[in-house]
Amino acid sequence: MEGRGARTVNRLGWIFAVVVSAMVLLPSARSQAPAEIPRIGILSFAAAPSGTDPDPDQGVLRGLRELGYVERLNILIERRYANGQDALLAAQAAELVNLKVRVILAGGPGPREAAKRATSTVPIITVSGSDPVREGWAQSLAHPGGNITGFTVTFPGLDLKRLELLKQAFPGIVRVGIVTEFHKQDVMQNLEAGARQLGLQLHVLEVRGRSEFDAAFKLARQQGVQALVVVATNIIVAHRSQLAELSISERLPSMSEFPVLAQAGFLMTYGADLDELGRLSVIQMDKILKGARPGDLPIEQPTKFYLTVNLKTAKALGIAIPQSLLLRADEVIQ
Description:
Layout: H1 2-31, E1 39-44, H2 58-66, E2 76-81, H3 86-98, E3 103-107, H4 109-118, E4 124-127, H5 132-135, E5 148-151, H6 157-169, E6 175-180, H7 184-197, E7 201-206, H8 213-222, E8 227-230, H9 234-238, H10 240-249, E9 254-256, H11 259-263, E10 268-271, H12 274-289, E11 306-310, H13 311-317, H14 323-328, E12 331-333
Parallel strand pairs: 1-2, 1-3, 3-4, 4-5, 6-7, 6-8, 8-9, 9-10, 11-12
Antiparallel strand pairs: 10-11
Helix pairs in contact: 2-12, 3-4, 6-7
């Protein structure tokens, strides 16, 4: 009897020890439970990736990989594409907010403004604009305040540099068409004096959407335009392939800003690399996911500008690019 009693006491003591251990371990187990996977949103004016153009988010996706983010493992990505339609952006921005994304990556002024109207609390990282303070989405570059930060992407001063490169490539040109969403007086105010010094006459071809491209090229023919400088706004980037095809069919050398336009068939581009800025924007996103406030993250500016030349387009146009320019190019598309 005494042996059985001792064994019973020992068994009860063992059970008590297990229960106590479990009570001690449970809080620790709870503290080690996996955190909720953060969800981010990408809002783009462009079309969804297709077989003809590169993925517009390839820079962002590369940046995520470099920082160790793997989709559905430690990051969830909600992508929304407006397919070149401004009217879709407001609903898409609201949808991302309703999905409780932690950060919205807004590519360009249209997506930035749609996201800004949709939320004043969800952090927004944008790659857009030339003067954030004047455009009203930042208090200053060093301390933007509010819920938006990111990168400036365009520099009006580079428009003259693009004219200079075009003149260097084709010394005989005189009449240059400026394809742009902006009003004629704004373009002429920034470029007229410099163009005159280069011996160039500017003809502003205003476009507000894809439906106006054909009329713009018809006007270019009527005005005897010999080459084009295309101001790379959201509409232009979204329809870059169509514009490149039109330029080639009209036998007009085309110059623009971002390398992605040269990759789509423009003859030359000079400006910042959107893919690189997308990659860098992920660094800001990572800081925000780790607790930084967007209003405290400085708005950054590109530090390198790339000259890209598309020799396939030159061949299609039946023209030669001077060797001096090819030697300066950061990328030559064969």
